[in-house]
Amino acid sequence: MHKTLTLIAVMAAGSALAQQAADSVQPEAATTGGFAAMSPQVAAALQAKDAGLPVTGKTWMVAAANPHAVQAGADVLAAGGTAADALVAVQTVLGLVEPQSSGLGGGAFLVWYDAKSGQLTTLDGRETAPLAATPTRFQDDKGEPVQFYDAVVGGLSVGVPGTPALLASAHDTWGNRDWATLLQPAITLAQDGFDVSPRLAGLVAADAERLARFESTASYFLPDGQPLQAGARLTNLGYADTLQMLAQDPSAFYTGEIAQDIIDTVNGAVPAGGLLTPLDFSLYSTRERPAVCAPFRGHDICGMGPPSSGALTVGQILGMLDSYDLEALGPADPQAWRLIGDASRLAFADRGRYMADSDFVPMPTKGLVDPAYLADRAKLLAGDDALPEVSPGTPAWDHAMLWADDESIELPSTSHISIADSYGNVASMTTTIENGFGSRLMVRGFLLNNELTDFSFRTHADGVPIANRLEPGKRPRSSMAPTIVMRDGAPVLAIGSPGGSRIIGYVAQAIVAHLAWGMDVQQAVAMPHAVNRFGNYDLEAGTAAADLQGPLEAMGFEVETRDLNSGLHAIEIGDGLQGGADPRREGIALGDD
């Protein structure tokens, strides 16, 4: 499957986009500082990532965004736990050491392959809007959308968190370890303290003004009025206490004093209070939903369906590209990126028109990834230049409705976890509190989400309703794309990324790199990024991707060079395991090699 020799030859010739992270995408400054001292295994994993090499494993592997979290998950797997058990340990540690990206106050989507049944399924742990919320929540008195950060910061944007319920549900269904012991690594680390990473310190400093607005948040992230410094020892006793309560009863998050403290914090926020009630919490539940799959290179690319747009949009991109010979073009050819860019634009046009919470609005889910529909859309790519304009297609569906195009804004944060266990189970989970540091409200040691700003601030366009408008109890549309790639009924790849709506492009590109261009998982996740969503082609600054600017502009694309900070974490499953961790962040992969 892999064309390693071809790849090496292309790289040796200085091709534009087949270069590894060590050559073209350096990690954020000093993100490995301190982590290498954790264990020889962590040090080796960091060295492998810096060298652009995958980590190998025999029977189990975990890849995630912080070495502390990965080590916690690896310890669970080494002791005979399942991927579901490891997810609990990894996520609760991530919520401590990477609080800006995910945690108890947010939501998550899980794609799960169950080895015993041979079946794929998904769990929807997306946040829900309060029952008292109205569609015009993010509009001013003239009916115009408010400024984005005016909506984000404070209680106005907070939905009922779903991550605690998802973790409990996954553990109840697929776990074999004692629940309380899975929380202990995070409890111990919160009590004993951990060294603030350079990445966390830099993000705190960049967001200090917003973090200073609320006393509990400021006291944690801005001690003595100054941003946390890299290397400082940080404890979080409030978080430890919360986890100890959940260790006794995971449902305690949605009842009693934890839920009430969240409600009081959200509703009492000044100047933008929320509308949460105990009823909102008591009604929350994780939803099991069927996986959405699309074809590419003899594989099924499977992921999370609505309310996520991730699997549908990734699937559409790859489904349209399936009839084009990307292998012959190779990763250095601008024509390959014309095809990828315009396929993405067409998919995003459908995303903006049709995709939302299918519990609230009818959606042509099957029609959007129907091979005949994708083949018809793929015909639009036959040419040499950029499409002058794109528009949504007309997929088949059971209940047609007229929708206007969505206008929601997604800014990058989030985190991704990929796990394969010794029993053959595979987990791919993307987890978030939405914007970096979420709503900036902190309660009981964790930050609360701002997921409601993933809804469209407008309710209608030209008198036509927008599918992703805010409604009571609704789950906002997401771009999270946790993915498991299947071949002949068996998983061969688990992958996902943070990055707002660019998640879709990051994941699609990595899958193309792996399946069409023969890159191993580390090369695929480290590859310089070129992402097109709405017409403007974003090329990753400081990498070989920027060399595409001239050729793409000559084809008619509008091009911008900018930082593109993905966080891809992938595991290839075959004769053993190979793991890759995005060099743009501080994560690693660990296995039992």
From TrEMBL:
Signal peptide: 1-18
Catalytic activity: an S-substituted glutathione + H2O = an S-substituted L-cysteinylglycine + L-glutamate; glutathione + H2O = L-cysteinylglycine + L-glutamate; an N-terminal (5-L-glutamyl)-[peptide] + an alpha-amino acid = 5-L-glutamyl amino acid + an N-terminal L-alpha-aminoacyl-[peptide]
Highest taxon of the lineage: Bacteria
UniProt pathway: Sulfur metabolism; glutathione metabolism
Key words, A-Z: Acyltransferase, Glutathione biosynthesis, Hydrolase, Signal, Transferase, Zymogen
Post-translational modifications: Cleaved by autocatalysis into a large and a small subunit.
Subunit-level organization: This enzyme consists of two polypeptide chains, which are synthesized in precursor form from a single polypeptide.
Protein name: Glutathione hydrolase proenzyme
Native source organism of the sequence: Pseudosulfitobacter koreensis
